[in-house]
Input
Amino acid sequence: MSKEPSFMVYLTTHEAVRESFLRHQEALLDRDLPEARRRLERHVRLLCDHIQEEEIDLLPIYGERAGRIEGGGVGLFTAEHRRFERMLKEFRDDLAEMRANDRALDRRILDLLDRQALYKHLLHHHDLRERNVLYPVLDRVTTPAERRKLIEPRRAARRRSTREAAQDRRKTPAARG
Output
């Protein structure tokens, strides 16, 4: 007997998004600005693809069928998505201005990491809201056939994201000098 499809599979994407941001921050700690930029761009792509999928495929169904849920309205999810996008634009702009030969580079990196702490905090709470509200409710208000139709087409992309995150973890230096 096969297991029923569940929107909880999207949590693998959440892990890949989280890991990609940590990898960006590791490159910042190493003062490797080109690598930090590359990894931030990868994070932006992963998160924006995930946001787009939620807003096009999942949130309309959730909004139509879930009813009123305190702390879990569609407007809250989309407002958080817009905030993430604004914050990421600021991070990209700040990183674009950093130069390896800048005498104040360490302080600029520390300032950026401080501001990124709020982003990580907000992302964590958004993950909890999706984990505890959005995905379980979607599982409840959709049929197995609807879930398969929505989940299956993106399964390969989620696997690729998870595989890339795992490859990035293996590339991490064992010790920092």
Q: What stands out?
A: Residues 7-169 form a domain with the Four Helix Bundle (Hemerythrin (Met), subunit A) fold (CATH 1.20.120.520). The CA atoms of residues 87 and 93 lie 10 Å apart. The chain has a mean pLDDT of 91. The two ends are 52 Å apart (CA to CA).
